[in-house]
Design goal:
Blueprint: H1 3-22, H2 28-121, H3 123-141, E1 147-152, E2 158-163, E3 172-176, H4 180-187, H5 192-217, E4 227-230, H6 234-243, H7 245-253, E5 256-259, H8 261-341, H9 347-350, H10 355-360
Parallel strand pairs: 3-4, 4-5
Antiparallel strand pairs: 1-2, 2-3
Helix pairs in contact: 1-2, 3-8, 4-5
């Protein structure tokens, strides 16, 4: 039984004792009635206390059931939360691995960019960079017989690349140039005045390269009437066409065509088509010569067939004559046989032939 119930019972007993003490002086009948009433009250109180105890027990049972249900739900929730947390942690680890890989790639790319900057900062290394890029583009598009790197011309000048094309147009020189300093000065100009000065310097550098290519690599009778200047940077090529169209016009008049990696690729594809067409023309000439030789052979064959036909005609005539002679011989043999097989020969047939017939001799059937 709960402590509160015991306290309540003790309090009721104390109240009963007090009432007994207060009314102890009355008569016996009143005391008996009061005692009877107290007994009834105590019985009712005991019944209520019993009901309260049962209700409290039921309440405790319900509370325990609810607490167990809440505990189970809380445990399930914690398990699900732990599982989802584990999945999230796994995804976080995977993403961290991806981030680490990307960070490594960025580090490698940064190293490559730094290396490229070091290459481009050195003039000789920058020239080698342009030549390597030119070599890769040309060797990827054209057959080895169509080009030559570091070719020496009759004037003693050495070209980065010489495209060997049939006449016309003839061999074309490609020379790599990279005016990076003036281009970077143009890109880093802080105001309009500095940009104008840098733009003028950039155009001057490009024109100097154009003039040098025109003087060195256009040789009458040996090369084509034009040459190509290769810029190994699309950005430099785009800036040149966007900001200095007059420099482009002057390069056209100098018969020097400025190309970038993209436009050079298109030019090389055109060169490959020209080489293919030239080879096709050569093969067409060979085929034409062979066809003419074949026609001569056919004419000789026709002549020889005619001669053979003539021989066959003569042989056929001779065979006909032979057949005619053999037929006559066969008929004469039959007549002789008929003469030998006759039993009686007339006397007239046995008479000697006339004198004239014997002199002239027998008549021969031709």
């Amino acid at each position: 039984m709960d402590t509160s119930v015991l306290i309540l019972i003790v309090a009721l007993i104390a109240i009963g004792v007090s009432l007994w003490a207060a009314f102890g002086r009355k008569d016996t009948s009143s005391a008996d009635a009061l005692t009877q009433q107290m007994i009834i009250s105590q019985a009712e109180l005991a019944g209520r206390l019993q009901s309260m105890s049962e209700a409290q027990a039921q309440l405790s049972h319900n509370m325990e059931a609810r607490l167990e249900s809440v505990t189970k739900r809380l445990g399930d929730g914690l398990n699900e939360h732990s599982k989802s947390t584990g999945d999230v942690i796994k995804q976080v680890h995977e993403r961290l691995a991806v981030i680490d890989s990307a960070q490594k790639n960025l580090t490698d790319l940064s190293d490559q960019v730094v290396g490229l900057q070091n290459i481009l900062s050195n003039k000789q290394a920058r020239g080698a960079f342009g030549e390597i890029q030119l070599n890769d583009l040309v060797s990827d598009v054209l057959p080895p017989s169509a080009y030559e790197f570091q070719a020496t011309l009759s004037n003693g000048k050495r070209a980065d690349c010489l495209l060997r094309l049939p006449n016309p147009p003839g061999s074309i020189v490609i020379d790599s140039k990279f005016p990076l300093e003036s281009y970077l000065a143009l890109r880093n100009a802080e105001n309009d005045d500095a940009r104008k000065v840098a733009l003028r310097s950039f155009g001057t550098d490009v024109l100097n390269h154009v003039r040098a290519i025109s003087e060195k690599y256009i040789v009458p009778g040996e090369t084509a009437e034009s040459a190509l200047m290769f810029l190994p940077s699309e950005a430099v090529y785009a800036e040149l066409h966007a900001s200095l169209p007059d420099v482009i016009e002057k390069s056209y008049r100098a018969r020097v065509w400025i190309v970038s990696p993209t436009t050079l690729m298109a030019t090389l594809n055109t060169v490959r088509a020209v080489l293919k067409d030239a080879r096709m023309r050569e093969q067409a000439g060979v085929i034409q010569a062979e066809v003419l030789n074949l026609l001569g052979d056919v004419e000789r064959l026709d002549t020889r067939v005619g001669k053979l036909q003539t021989h066959f005609t003569l042989a056929q005539k001779d065979i006909g004559d032979i057949q005619t002679s053999s037929g006559k011989i066969s008929r004469r043999a039959e007549r002789i046989e008929d003469i030998q097989l006759q039993d009686e020969t007339p006397a007239d047939d046995l008479a000697p032939p006339p004198l004239a017939d014997s002199i002239s001799g027998p008549k021969v059937d031709t």
